[in-house]
Amino acid sequence: MLRAEKYTTTSIIAAAAAAASAIRYQFGPGISLSLLTAVVLMPVWWPALKEYRFARLLLGLAGAAAVWGVVLTTFETVRPTSSSLMMEQTFTLLSLAGGIGVLLWVRTQLGIAGTAVAFGVGALANVALTGGNSANLWKYSLAVPVIIIVLGLTSTSGRRWLDLLALGALAAVCLVSDSRSMTSFLLLSGVIVLWQSFMPPGRRRPRPAQTLILLGLLSVAAFSLLQALILDGALGDAAQQRTQAQIDTSGSLIAGGRPELGAATALISHRPQGFGSGVLPTSQDVWIAKTGMSGLNYDPNNGYVEGYMFGGQYEVHSVLGDMWLRFGPLGAAFALMLVGCAVYAVARSVSIKAASGLAVLLTLLGAWDTFFSPLLTSSRTLALLFALTAIPLADLAQRRLRGTESLPLGADSPRPTR
C-alpha cells in the first residue's frame, strides 16, 4: 500500500511538472513557471539525464551559450545594454534547457504518451492564463495543445490506423481554420506514418541516413504539391491570394512569408560572434537588417521592423537566428543540436516502422520552428520534442544485443529500475 501511494504521488507530481513546463506565464523578466519548476525539481531530473543519449551534452551547451551571451553583453562598448533584458533572455534559454530536463524525468515516470498529454493539458491552461488570440483562436492558440493531446492519446494504442485517423481529422479542422502550415505538417505526418506500412516487414537494423534522404525528397514533393493546390484555389481564395502575393514578392513562398530571414542573415554576417543577450539594437543594426530584407524584395519601412523586430531586442522570427544573435554560435549550435537529435531519432525509428504520428509531427514542427518561429513561442514545444524523441541509453544497449538499435518512438518506454 505504501509503495502504491508513493507511486501515485510521484505520478501526480510528474504530471503537474509536465503541465507546468508548457505554461509561459511569467512572474518577472524571464522568470516563468516552467523555469521555477525546473529549479525546484533539479535534484530529480538531473540524474535522469544520464539515461538519455546526448542529454547532458545538450544542456551543457545551453549553459555555455548562456554564459557567452552574458560575456558579449558585459564587454560591449559600442551599443547600449540592459541588465534586465540580459536576465530575461538568459532565463528564457535556461527555461528551455530546464524544461528538457524536467520532461525527460517525467517521461521516466509517465511514459511518452502520458508526458505528451500532461504537457498538452498545461498548454491549454496557458491559453486560459495568457488569453487566446481572438484573430484566429484555433490557429494561433488551441491547435498545438489539442493536437499534442489527441496524438498522445492515440499513441498509447499502438494502432497505426488511429494515428492516421487523428491526423486526417485534425488536418481537416486546420484546413477550414485557414492554417496552411499546420495542415501541411499534419498531412505530411500522415503520409510518413502510412509509408511505414509499405516498408519491408520485419524488424531490421535502422538506416537513418537513407531514411533522411527519402524523407527529404518526400517533404519537398509534398510542399510542391500543397503549394500547387493552394495556387489552384483548393484551400480557398484567401489562401490563394496570400500565397501568390508572397511568391510574387520574393519568388519563393518561404522567403516571401518569412522576410525576417534576410535580416537574420545580414546581421549574422555582420557580427558572426553574436551581439549578446542584453545588448540593444542600434539604428545601424536596423539599417543592416532592412538591407537584408530589401534583398528579398520586401519593403521594411512599415513599422514592423522597428516596432517588433528591433523594438528593444533582436527578434528575427527564428529560433536559430534569435539564438545566434543573442548567444552567438554556441546558441546556434544548441538549437541545431536539439532539432538534429530529434530528426535523427525519428528517422531511425521510421526506418524500422516504429515512429508514431506524435513523434513525426513534433519533429516537423520543431524543424520549422527552428528556422521560422520566435524563440519565446517555440521553446516549450522544442523542449517536449527532445524529451519525447531522446534515445534511452539502456534501451539502445539492449536492442543492440538483440540485433536492432532503435526505440519505437511514440510507445511508452519502460520505467527504469531504481
Descriptive overview:
The protein has helices at residues 2-21, 33-40, 42-48, 55-74, 83-130, 137-155, 160-176, 180-197, 208-231, 237-250, 253-257, 260-270, 283-294, 304-309, 319-350, 357-372, 375-389, 393-401, and strands spanning 26-28, 31-32. With 418 residues, it is an all-alpha fold. A two-stranded antiparallel ribbon has the order 1-2. Strand 1 and strand 2 (31-32) form a beta hairpin. Helix 4 runs antiparallel to helix 15.
Short description:
The protein has 418 residues and is an all-alpha fold.
Beta-strand residue percentage: under 5%
| Biggest sheet: strand arrangement | 1-2
> Uncertain regions: pLDDT < 50 for 5+ in a row?
403-408, 410-418
Structural class: mainly alpha
Distance between the termini: 18 Å
Number of helices, counting only DSSP H or I runs of 4 residues or more: 18
Layout of secondary structure:
Layout: H1 2-21, E1 26-28, E2 31-32, H2 33-40, H3 42-48, H4 55-74, H5 83-130, H6 137-155, H7 160-176, H8 180-197, H9 208-231, H10 237-250, H11 253-257, H12 260-270, H13 283-294, H14 304-309, H15 319-350, H16 357-372, H17 375-389, H18 393-401
Antiparallel strand pairs: 1-2
Helix pairs in contact: 1-5, 2-5, 3-5, 4-5, 4-15, 5-6, 5-17, 6-7, 7-8, 8-16, 9-15, 12-13, 12-15, 15-16, 15-17, 16-17
Keywords:
single chain; 418 residues; mainly alpha; 18 helices; 2 strands; 72% helix; disordered C terminus
